Amino acid sequence: MNGDSGRAEPVGIDLVAPEVFAPMLRRLALGALAVGVVVALLSAIWLSWTYAIVLGLVVAVPTIGYVIAFGRRRMWLCGTEIQARRLFGAHRIDLADATGVHLLVFPGRLSRIVLKVTVGADTQLVPLAMYTDAGSGRELHLLGLRKLADALSASELAAAVSVSAVLVAQLRAEARDAGLGERPLYRGVRLVRAKDAVSPVVLTDTEVAELS
């Protein structure tokens, strides 16, 4: 771990914090449980209770498992270290040790632009923004963008410094409440949409430079 990472205050960098969806997820889990119970009771009319219960679990458990997994997922930036909590265990990757830094766009009706960080064979994706075809969307909060930009600027990789400049430009655009067309992250998504791509696209060094 980088020495600064150990002393820095962790900053949440979830694009959408799990607690925002907590009420909906609870309703989804309860709904899945109710459906599972109904399926088990109806199946018991024709099957033994053992098979009926197993069938009810098959219906309910996947959805309940997804709700638990989604609720546990969190991501923080601590100095230059990204810490991601998953359903089982945690993942850490240090931006100071990055061997590759890219902006990756997932095109679609709800397009996402993410930071892809590689350290050797290890990879971490950090969602930065998502935009709909209608022109609405959600962007990572200002403090998260600022801390990511600072951490990337400390890297020796030219690509990391270039992406840091894009995040700084995004911060400035958000600070003056600029329209989407003036926001670098949205323009990055628009570049990929113009290509009619259907699979994830890594922005080239030239495209990243043009965004800032």
Could you explain the architecture of this structure?
46% of the residues lie in helices and 24% in strands. It is built from seven helices and nine strands. The strands form two sheets. Strands 8-7-6-5-9 form a five-stranded antiparallel β-sheet. The chain has a four-stranded antiparallel β-sheet with strand order 1-2-3-4. Strand 6 and strand 7 form a beta hairpin. It is α+β, with helices and mostly antiparallel strands and 212 residues long.
Defining key terms:
four-stranded antiparallel beta sheet; disordered N terminus; 212 residues; 46% helix; 24% strand; 7 helices; five-stranded antiparallel beta sheet; alpha+beta; elongated
Number of DSSP strand runs: 9
Helix content: 40-55%
Shape descriptor: elongated
Largest sheet: 5 strands, antiparallel
Residue-averaged pLDDT = 82
Question: What is the rounded Rg?
Answer: 21 Å
Helix run count:
7
What are the low-pLDDT stretches, counting only 5+ consecutive residues below 50?
1-6
* Class by alpha and beta content: alpha+beta
How far is it from the N-terminal to the C-terminal residue, by CA? 30 Å
How much β-strand is present in the residues?
Answer: 15-25%
Strand and helix order: HEHHEEEEEEEHHHEH
- Which sequence of strands runs across the widest sheet? 8-7-6-5-9
